[in-house]
Design goal:
Elements (H helix, E strand, L loop, with lengths): L1 H16 L3 H10 L21 H30 L4 H11 L10
Helix pairs in contact: 1-3, 1-4, 2-3, 3-4
């Protein structure tokens, strides 16, 4: 499991960078990513404009987009590396199981 965690961690930055400014900043705020040396983005719209229900929905969608991007990147790695790197397949299985999301996917 440690190898899977390390692998996902390596794909996390690029997946996070692929998100919109709003999604990125919602996740940045929620998970206090500044403690990991990650900086917020300049957003066109302030997150303070969101009411609590809209913020909850937007955060849920941002999580899903992040996990979908992680899955996309890992699928590409799997296609390139194939059976030589079973840890990639283990990471994909973990993502697809929905265990990384409280509310499931889709």
């Amino acid at each position: 499991m440690l190898e899977v965690t390390r692998l996902i961690k390596g794909f996390f930055g690029p997946a996070l960078d692929s998100l919109s400014d709003r999604d990125y900043n919602l996740l940045y705020e929620k998970y206090q990513l500044q403690t990991h040396g990650i900086k917020p983005r300049e957003a066109k719209r302030s997150l303070e404009d969101l009411n609590p229900n809209a913020r909850k929905t937007a955060l849920s969608r941002a999580r899903i987009r992040l996990l979908n991007e992680l899955e996309r990147q890992l699928s590409l790695a799997d296609a390139v590396l194939g059976n030589d790197h079973l840890v990639v397949r283990d990471a994909l299985q973990l993502l697809r199981s929905g265990s990384m999301l409280r509310n499931g996917r889709k």
